[in-house]
Design a protein that fits this description.
There is one protein chain. The chain has 176 residues and is α/β, with parallel strands linked by helices. The protein folds into 2 domains: 24-118, Immunoglobulin-like (Sandwich); 135-165, no CATH class. Helices cover 16% and strands 34% of the residues. A 5-stranded mixed beta sheet has the order 3-2-5-6-9, with no helix packed on it. Strands 1, 4, 7 and 8 form a 4-stranded mixed beta sheet that branches. A two-stranded antiparallel sheet has the order 10-11. Strand 10 (145-146) and strand 11 form a beta hairpin. The protein is elongated, with a radius of gyration of 24 Å. The two termini are 36 Å apart.
Length: 176
C-alpha cells in the first residue's frame, strides 16, 4: 500500500512540474504623460500580428498595466485615452516566458492623431530574475548528454516525439 501511495505522489509531483513550463509571455509597463505623472484609465490593446487576436487591459490608479498569458510571436501595442494622441508600437516580439516591460509616455493631443513607434522592447528582463535561452531543435537533437555510468542519452524523442528507438544501457559497478 505504501508503494502505491509513494508512486502516486511521485507522479503528481512530476505532473505538477510539467504544468509549470509555459510557451506564453507577458507585457507590463507604466503609462505617463509628458510631465511624468501616471495616467490611469488608459486602454491598452495588443494585437497578435499572425492571427489578429486581441487582448486588452486598462491602466490602474498607478498607471500600470499587465497583459498576461500571451502566445509567443509578433504583436502591435496600441494605447488610447481622451486628451492624448493614440500610441501605436509595431514589431513587439515576444519569446517564451518573456515579460516585456514597455513603459509609454503619451503626448497631449486629439485621440484621432497617432504616435507610431517601430522598434522592439528591450531584451533585458527587468520584471523577473530568470535567465532563459531559446534553442533550435537541431541543437538539442545533436548534443549528447553524459549520464551517470557513461551511457549517452540520445534526444531522438524530442525530434520525433516517439518512444526511444533503442534502450539506454545502464552500467553498474560492483566492488570486488
Amino acid at each position: 500500500m505504501k508503494f502505491w501511495i509513494m508512486s502516486l505522489s511521485v507522479m503528481l509531483l512530476i505532473a505538477r512540474q510539467g504544468c509549470a513550463q509555459s510557451d506564453r509571455a507577458s507585457i507590463a509597463g507604466t503609462i505617463k504623460d509628458p510631465s511624468g505623472a501616471v495616467i490611469p484609465g488608459v486602454e491598452v490593446v495588443v494585437t497578435q500580428a499572425n492571427t489578429s487576436i486581441q487582448k486588452s487591459s486598462i491602466t490602474n490608479a498607478l498607471g500600470s498595466y499587465t497583459l498576461l498569458n500571451l502566445p509567443i510571436g509578433p504583436y502591435t501595442l496600441t494605447c488610447s485615452k481622451d486628451g492624448f494622441l493614440r500610441y501605436e508600437r509595431f514589431g513587439v516580439k515576444l519569446a517564451i516566458n518573456q515579460v516585456a516591460e514597455i513603459d509609454i509616455a503619451l503626448t497631449l493631443g486629439a485621440k484621432t492623431e497617432i504616435t507610431t513607434v517601430r522598434r522592439d522592447p528591450s531584451l533585458l528582463q527587468t520584471q523577473t530574475s530568470s535567465i532563459t535561452a531559446n534553442l533550435l531543435n537541431s541543437a538539442l537533437t545533436e548534443a549528447p548528454l553524459n549520464v551517470q555510468g557513461g551511457a549517452i542519452l540520445r534526444l531522438s524523442c524530442l525530434n520525433s516525439c516517439r518512444a526511444w528507438k533503442e534502450p539506454i544501457p545502464i552500467h553498474t559497478s560492483t566492488a570486488a
